[in-house]
Amino acid sequence: MAGLSGGGRGGGPGMDDIFSQFFTAGGPGGPFFTFDFGGASGPRRSKGRDSIISYEVTLEDLYNGKSVKLNMEKEVVCSGCKGSGARGSAKPKQCATCEGKGWSFVTNQIGPSRLGTSRSRCSDCNGEGEKLREKDRCKKCKGEKTVKEKNRQEIFVEKGMSDRQRIVLAGAGDEEPEVPAGDVVFVLKAKTHETFERSGNDLLTHVKITLSEALLGFSRILITHLDGRGVKVTSPANKVLGASSTIRINGEGMPVYKRPDQKGDLFVILEVEMPSQEWMAQIDRKALEALLPPKRSDADVQPKPEVVDEASFEESDIMEFGEDDDDDWEDDDEDDDDNFGGFGGAYAGGAREPDCRNQ
After folding, report:
1. Count of CB atoms within 10 A of residue 209's CB?
2. Acidic residues bias: where (predicted)?
3. Do 157 and 182 belong to one domain?
4. CB under 8 A, 24+ apart: contacts of 216-223
5. pLDDT tens digits for 27-38?
6. CB hemisphere CA count around 49 (13 angstroms)
7. Residues 6+ apart with CB under 8 A from 47
8. Does one domain contain both 132 and 244?
């Protein structure tokens, strides 16, 4: 093994030197040792670091696609010193802090009377084992080897892309000496839409229809789509639509990624909008009652209850349901908890569907 050549001969490291890198006295707890694989800077990378950028998009962007031009800033190899960081022919000197190793041993307390030793990157030379004197540094990059440069990049949000999908600009990331530049990776973050909800390639929306449309049918522009088109729908003849009926419009969902000529489906939940008090005040209630199905009566309740109480009517909001339940209760008999191992509690949960309504 190349790192262990010499085995006690010539100037090579002896076994005592090797083990001294892993062990240290640990007091009463015994010796403690740590292993370190690779140098302080880690293995040599095949390319520069990638830049990850979160980019917010709307559902319209993902439906229609778009191109975006962005002003960006990146690190590029200094043209003055070609990435050496040195002025002219100046050469770096061995770091006095780490003696050229790029790392040094650090001893930390890991417990009572126990110490641990590990290798740490040298902060003085940033793990390189050598450094330039101040007067030998490149004037353009101040010895940093890279400088900041502004550029303009264009990204393409393709039709059908989804939340958290990545757009990679290969080689557009920060440059480092002697390694290819990293990538710039845009991670899409889709904003919540007010009208549509997406699942895969399908879309879902809510549309209000009148009581007349529910009973007698309709033929009208039902929704305005994500590309601005109106979508006209005609309900089947003599079809009565109940509350929260769902219809499917084939081929009006999201475009399929990389196959934008194909689309998913659009699901529409139809919500029946009841007439207003103002409308009811203007019509002949007797005539309307004659047209509508008959009301239910007490005779429809079977079996008939022996006791009937009169209750008051009051409008409310479903969000008030359970508002006085704080899920906090105590057992009057604490011994019962001990008898059953102390298990107890109350569970409650619920979820609201997102309010995504179309006109």
Report:
1. 19
2. 308-339
3. yes
4. 222/268, 222/358, 223/266, 223/268, 223/358, 223/359
5. 444 444 444 444
6. 5
7. 179, 180, 181, 182
8. no
